[in-house]
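Revision sheet: structure tokens.
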Amino acid sequence: MSALPNITPQTYSFDEYLRIEAQNEHKSEFYDGKIVAMAGSTFDHSLLTRNMQMTIQLRIKSSICNSFTSDVKVYVAEAHRGFYPDVSVVCGEVQPYKKSNSVLVNPSLIVEVLSKSTAEYDRTAKFEYYKLLPSFKCYVLVHQEQKCVEVFTKRGDFWTYEAYYETKPMIVIDTLQIEFSIEEVYEGVTIVPPKPEVDIEDEEEV
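Predicted:
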């Protein structure tokens, strides 16, 4: 989900942010003392988020893991940042922030559905923030403009990478010991490839 550029000039503590957020009608994320409003979700973004959460939960329901929707926040204390991941999974006991019932500090897996405005941030800076969480072992990125799911998995001190497409349709999540098809992820979603950019200088007059 994308963040809007209107950032509050005042600096807040995370606890102050939570009190403000509880009274707001719209979601905001917490960036090192600043409160950043988030843009609303699109139909496809919502469908992909729902599909991922339901698909994962269906396969882990008999395990010690549980999945959570984008209504649950994740707090990265070391980075002083709070996020709303599209999907998060906790394996074992849920560790809340100060007994909060809506803020996690120990996600095992996080899913982000990429948007044009946030894709680069999700792949780079946000990933680095999530890596500061000791419990974090798997990062899943879901594309909207093509059927593509990227999976980053922590193995020891290193992160491995695997991409799944229609030609490689079975998505494997080793950290949860599950797999599912890419068609389950994109069920109900119509993929419309972006129009290629045209270089005006190369266009010929008709």
